[in-house]
Amino acid sequence: MKPVLIVGGGPVGLTAAQCLAAADIPVIVFEADAAISEDLRASTFHPPTLDMLDRFGLGTALVAQGLVTPSWQVRLHETGERAVFDLSLLRDDTNHPYRLQCEQQKLQFLLLDSLAQHPHADIRFDSPVDLVGQDADGVWLETRGERIAGSWLIGADGARSIVRKTLDIGFGGETYPETTILITTDFDFSTVMEGLSGVNYFWGQAGAFSLMRLPDLWRSSYTPKPDQSVEDALTPEAVERHLQDVAPRSTPYNVMHKRTYRIHQRVADTYRVGRMILAGDAAHLNSPNGGMGMNGGIHDAFNLAEKLIEVWRGADDGLLDLYVRQRRPIAIEHVIAQADRNRRRMRETDPDRRRALLTDLQRTADDPKRARDYLLNSAMLTGLRQAAAIT
Ligand SMILES: Cc1cc2nc3c(=O)[nH]c(=O)nc-3n(C[C@H](O)[C@H](O)[C@H](O)COP(=O)(O)OP(=O)(O)OC[C@H]3O[C@@H](n4cnc5c(N)ncnc54)[C@H](O)[C@@H]3O)c2cc1C
Description:
The chain has 391 residues and is α+β, with helices and mostly antiparallel strands. It has twelve helices and 20 strands.
């Protein structure tokens, strides 16, 4: 049989390739870039993602490269009052009762190494796909003037997916008005701020921000002040002012990276047309608040590959519609909805409403049963369980 073609060598495309190659199904991945991108993107892996990756020994390998983060918190910056969520409450629900703080490209490099051991996997960088097409018997794509035929095609080509556009699949939703700034520094905030977790969401008088710890650095995300343009907020002086607001110190901060991004919440009208199927950012986009976009995309890849393996072995291809029925509602009702709630909560500016939200979070965090339910949801386990119940 002709190979499965995967457009996009991001975390989702490579995970799908890994699942299929491990089942002895030939796959070719086409990646437009010359190498794995090292842009600042996902930094949080949730427990079920690590459980899934461990089917290939990759969860353990990733944990060795990241920072095990047993709790996360929401906090009032000026007083230090906080609600701390303890992920060990999920110890009976997962083999990884923590968030792993680790850059997404580290997973991609691990996947590339693993795929290099599979004779069925062919990963082609510098291969932008310009055209895709299909008929009843197969699919094809064109890259750099060459036409390649396949049996099925997975569109894991990110937010601007050429596969989704060619299939004319609607991508309804909205783009939030704000631009977010993300910077990194090698300063260790835990030496000056009491009781920090590895993942921290702050309400501050000067604005809301996050502090995320990675093995070698800390990240902070925030939005420009109401009277500030994005350009002004990105100047070295303004970035320094933000960091001094986070933790005043006499020496200037060493800022290692800075970037901006816009946030969308969108979902594709369908994930499948015939022999072409969407996964990851090509199918859904959400606010990074809560760290669920890549994780959800990896869950798509595992779910889709499981079905495609059965279809490859002779099952009716209607099984692929079950992938859509299981994964699309989860993107809408869990990932996008939860990320939107997280974003709205942190954008609250009224001190009384912030305090009421914090009190509610503290009550939840301090009650083991409520906290476990909350964590099952925020760690994406509830969505996966509900999807598994859809037949
Ligand atoms: C600042 C930030 C922080 C984030 N934090 C988190 C987090 O903590 N946790 C989390 O789960 N998610 C997070 N996300 C979201 C996460 O980065 C994405 O959801 C994830 O990268 C999606 O993976 P993907 O493989 O679907 O798409 P992508 O990573 O976008 O990969 C798509 C690939 O397809 C390639 N491509 C595109 N078009 C073509 C073409 N025509 N031909 C060939 N190749 C093509 C691209 O070059 C790219 O390599 C964050 C995002 C941002 C911006």
